Amino acid sequence: FFFFQAEDGIRDPLWSRGLGDVYKRQSQQLGPYAVSFDLNANYQVQNAQPIESETANAYQMRLFVDNSTFAVIGITEYAEPTDATLQVHESLMPMNMIIREGLNATNVEEMTIDGMEGFMVTSEPFEAIAGAPSTVYRAMYWLDSENCECGPVSIGQTSVI
Fold first, then answer.
1. CA angle 63-64-70, nearest 5°?
2. Which residues contact 99 (CB under 8 A, 6 or more apart)?
3. Which positions ≥6 away from 61 have C-beta within 8 Å?
4. Which of 21, 39, 62, 151 is the most exposed place for a label (fewest CB within 10 A)?
5. Do the strands 116-125 and 51-52 form a parallel or antiparallel pair, or are they unpaired?
6. Exposed, middle or buried by CB within 10 Å (0-12, 13-18, 19+), for 153?
7. DSSP letter (8 states) at residue 126
8. Per residue in 60-75, pLDDT tens?
9. Phi-psi bin for 51: left (phi > 0), alpha (psi -120 to 50), beta?
10. Residues forming beta bridges with residue 57, ordered by sequence position
11. Are 35 and 114 in contact, with CB atoms under 8 Å apart?
């Protein structure tokens, strides 16, 4: 299990695949963000092609530890402020995992991630699949969430999953 932090700004470009060092704080480029994390294992990095549209830009990387263990880090930049209310996303993410990925959310835990309010969903597959992980973790926070004058909601433009 690891935590990650996304930072604004362009850093030196990195290759889209690389071997991480064991027991060291790592940093990888993900679009215009430097993503740093602690992962106590050898791993391979695979960056997906950015998805760019008028409404949002999305960047995603996978960190592969072995054939059945990996983590996905995704950053989405919305063109306009969007609903960043964590309670909404805490409800939607488990439903999305059930419908799109066949994962049963077993726990949702609020937590602080790199000084930002966030949450983590723990889930497991409905059916055991050979080579698939038995437990899946997904966490989310916003880099720039702020209270909205429009009511009891938050707005933001950059989410990290």
1. 80
2. none
3. 28, 30, 35, 45, 46, 47, 48, 72, 73, 74
4. 151
5. unpaired
6. middle
7. S
8. 888 887 766 777 788 8
9. beta
10. 52, 77
11. no
Query: Are 20 and 43 spatial neighbours (Cβ–Cβ below 8 Å)?
Result: yes
pLDDT at position 55: 93
| Cα-trace Rg, the chain | 16
Cα dihedral value 23, 113, 82, 55, nearest 10: 0
Instruction: Tell me the C-alpha distance between 111 and 123, whole Å.
Output: 16
pLDDT in tens, 115-145: 888 888 888 888 766 666 677 888 888 888 8
Is residue 63 within 8 Å of 47, Cβ to Cβ? no
Task: Find the helix or strand (DSSP H, E) in which 75 lies.
Answer: strand 69-83
Return the percentage of the chain with pLDDT > 70, whole number: 77
pLDDT band at 8 (very low <50, low <70, confident <90, very high): very low
Q: Work out whether the CA dihedral 28, 59, 3, 156 comes out positive or negative.
A: positive
